[in-house]
Predict the structure.
Amino acid sequence: MVVLVCMLTIALAGGSWLGLQLYQAMSCFISAHSEHAIVLNISAADWDTDNGASRVPIHITGKTVDGITVDEVDYVASDGSGISLIQGVYTLEAAGSPIAADGTIYQIPCTSATLTLDDVFATGETINLAELAEQDSILTFRPIDAGDMTNDEIYNAALLAVAYKGNDAPDVAALCQAAINRRTAASTSGNAFKSCGEIGSVLQVKRANQSLFHRN
């Protein structure tokens, strides 16, 4: 890139045709590889990441403009932020449930959105999927009744939550305990996690044997 900039500077100084070609090529490259902030519209009752809830894990698959395969999990906050992509074609879908501050866990929506990022969008433009008419991009997470939450649902939500390493990462142990307490208060089942410590020990074993792909 440094060499290209130097060549461009020299060529432009001479006002040459080569200078124009280099300028256009560099502009196209920068545009194609500039990151677009992607905003999702997520609906989930009582879910607020500013109030301690975990983010929504979004599974992104596709290919970049360079043909590089993308297969990752990014995490979205209540304001819809958390994903940045360069030009390419992608499919976005929920990878699991968040955990609300009160321990609510949600049914995972089966909808997905396919997004094509190309020269139609300005360099670095923020893209709100809800504003793209062709996208059914609203992800609606419906709360699971407290008494119906299973060990697996609590565990899977915790596993995804603990994988997020951002500066605003929640207290996953507290969220797990809130989910357990919420389920315990509404259920008489004896075959259930009693404390977040039980989940924590399972998570440690799982994390030692499984590699999650994520950027944040």
User: Anything to note?
Assistant: The first strand starts at residue 36 and ends at 39. The chain has two domains: 2-32, 34-209. Strands lie at 36-39, 41-44, 56-64, 69-76, 83-85, 88-94, 112-117, 127-128, 138-141. The first helix runs from residue 2 to 13.
